[in-house]
Write a structure and sequence with these properties.
single chain; alpha+beta; 4-stranded antiparallel sheet; extended
Length: about 220
């Protein structure tokens, strides 16, 4: 087995130094790292130095741009989520397997993973259920864990909720704060908007009036 220690190659560009972790061996491709003004960037896994140099050169402009200091607080898009059943679930990855096992694929609207539209005691009949807490019981860890699911967990919750008017691609916007040299950047909050801003503003202006308002794309 290769000892994947970082070794500096003889390939040195004017503005960066290229190094690698490990060496090519059969199907294994080592990781190449470009050091730009003292900051390291992972270039990728390549079979040859020439491929790594080409990739580093192609990305150099981006590396230089990202050397600029970032503010202590910023807001940026960190990704998107795709919704096909008008619902998302927020949970810790360690709970995915057990919670997904409760899914009823033959009866999705009333599956345990979806907000329950059934009537419960003391519920107002015309109130739509928008979200649901999903309880994941604690499980003990295995003596010799081999996978994430073997580590055991405390009991905890996931949250299922309906997304605006239904399906679509939704951007995830994060508030990011810098917590100092030790902790660095951290996500302080996220925001996912499921409806058009103008529709939200029109509803705000309506105040307590629950009369139907035509929404964009709705009839």
């Amino acid at each position: 087995m290769n000892k994947r220690k970082q070794k500096t190659t003889t390939e040195v560009a004017n503005t960066y130094t290229l190094s690698r972790v490990g060496k090519p061996d059969g199907e294994f491709k080592p990781l190449y790292i470009a050091t730009v003004r003292g900051v390291q960037f992972a270039v990728g896994y390549f079979a040859t130095v020439e491929e790594a140099v080409a990739a580093a050169n192609a990305n150099l402009a981006d590396y230089l741009t990202r050397l600029e200091p970032k503010p202590a607080y910023r807001v940026e898009k960190i990704g998107t989520i795709t919704v096909d059943t008008g619902t998302i679930v927020i949970l810790d990855p360690c709970r995915i397997g057990r919670i997904a096992a409760t899914q009823d694929h033959d009866n999705l609207p009333f599956s345990p993973l979806y907000p329950d539209d059934g009537l419960t005691p003391n519920r107002r009949v015309d109130d739509k259920v928008l979200s649901r807490q999903i309880w994941d019981p604690p499980i003990p860890g295995k003596e010799n864990p081999k996978e994430l699911k073997d580590l055991g967990t405390t009991g905890g919750h996931a949250l299922s909720l309906h997304t605006g008017l239904g399906d679509g691609e939704y951007s995830v916007i994060a508030e990011i704060v810098n917590c100092g040299p030790l902790l660095g950047d951290r996500i302080a909050a996220i925001h996912i908007q499921f409806m058009a801003t103008e529709d939200i503003e029109r509803r705000k202006e309506a105040g307590g009036d629950r009369a139907a308002i035509k929404l964009n794309g709705a009839t």
